[in-house]
Amino acid sequence: xxxxxxxxxxxxxxxxxxxxxxxxxxxxxxxxxxxxxxxxxx
Length: 42
Prior knowledge:
Blueprint: H1 2-7, H2 28-31
């Protein structure tokens, strides 16, 4: 389906890239601590 929309030029180049955040598997406390994150995590 996606490729069909691209071929029909109804889906632009910018719509083909999706940025996501990977889960860190942190516990509830660690989620609140800045030291649990590295540059580029968010």
